[in-house]
Structures are given as structure tokens and as C-alpha cells.
């Protein structure tokens, strides 16, 4: 993506004599970048550069596709006999998301058609841990959902506290949940354990294949 600097020539509409839409967009992104970098204390570590790239990616979804951003937190019921792993909770979340949430959002179980994929949320899910806990429930998820305008009413109608019905085959592993509308910058908080858990989930999965460089 082109980065605007003080030496960049401003593109001006020849008729209106005003800065172009592209320049305005890049200026907005530049302004947001300063906040994101400040949040990370101007870190240039590889993991933080990836987090910045992902934040910019979802900010562009807001600008280009008019998507709205939501932050979903999910915790999980502990096992009785062992401490669960990242792969355990990733499986819990994938089952919940693909088999429970998406059919509710889209109004159909046939979620894999081209038209349905185009209106699905674009979702990033990061692993986090309760640092003071040594129990099996220490691992949990923070998800950033980039919501299509056609499904915005569904998400805005959800209660903030425990919006997920945990009495279904695909949600019974979930202990608590919380959802709120947020800004793209919330991804930086959600991915705060990225250095330790760099393998995030992304839905639809085709986006993960196309954006492996993030």
C-alpha cells in the first residue's frame, strides 16, 4: 500500500480543484497509523508490525466496504482431567463460529455459497490467557468481526453480556461471552499475546489463504 509522506504530490481533481478521494483516504490512514504505533510504543518487532498490518487491513474494510467492527470475547469451560491447549480452544471456537453463529447471522446453514461468503463477517480470532491463572480455563479468545452492513442489525441486537446460547451441541464448551462494537484499533488489544500465540484464526478461510503475509 502506498504511504503518503510530506514529499508526496497531492492529487487534485482538475474540475473541483480539491484533493482526491484516494488522497483523503491515505491521509486518514496516516493519522490512524500514528495512534496505532503510539499504542505499541513505536515497537518495530516483527510481531507488532504484523499486528499493525492487520489493523490497517480492517481499517481499510471500514473505509472501502463500510463494514462495522465488533469485539467478541469467549471463555471456555475447564476440563476436569487436564489443561486444554490452544488447539482445543481453536476447535471449540471454530465449531461455534461455523456451525452456530454463521447460520444465525446469514439465516441459512448453506453458508459456503459465493453470495453468502460475501456477506459473512471477516473475522480474526486471537488467543489470549489469564496470566494469573494456572487452571485449565486460562486460555480464551478475542475476536474482531468486520461486519457487513446487511447483517449489522443482527449484531447490534445482541446483548453485550453472554450473547451466546451455550445449551447447543456447538456452544456447550463456551463458559462466558461478551460482544461490543469497537474501533479497528481494538485489534491491537485483542492480539496482545501475538508474540506467544502467532497462529490466529481467520474466517472465511479463503481470506487467511490470501493474506498469509500478514
* Overall body shape: globular
Average pLDDT reading = 86
Q: In terms of per-residue confidence, which ranges show pLDDT below 50 for 5 or more consecutive residues?
A: 1-14
Q: What about the largest sheet?
A: 5 strands, antiparallel
Q: Please, how many helices?
A: 7
Quick overview:
The protein is α+β, with helices and mostly antiparallel strands and 214 residues long. It has helices at residues 21-39, 46-65, 86-106, 114-119, 152-156, 186-190, 205-210; strands at residues 68-76, 122-129, 139-147, 174-182, 201-203. It has a 5-stranded antiparallel β-sheet with strand order 4-1-3-2-5.
Structure, described:
There is one protein chain. The protein has 214 residues and is of the alpha+beta class. It has one domain. The chain has a five-stranded antiparallel beta sheet. The radius of gyration is 19 Å and the shape is globular.
Features:
alpha+beta; 5 strands; 214 residues; single chain
Secondary-structure topology with pairs:
Elements: H1 21-39, H2 46-65, E1 68-76, H3 86-106, H4 114-119, E2 122-129, E3 139-147, H5 152-156, E4 174-182, H6 186-190, E5 201-203, H7 205-210
Antiparallel strand pairs: 1-3, 1-4, 2-3, 2-5
Helix pairs in contact: 1-2
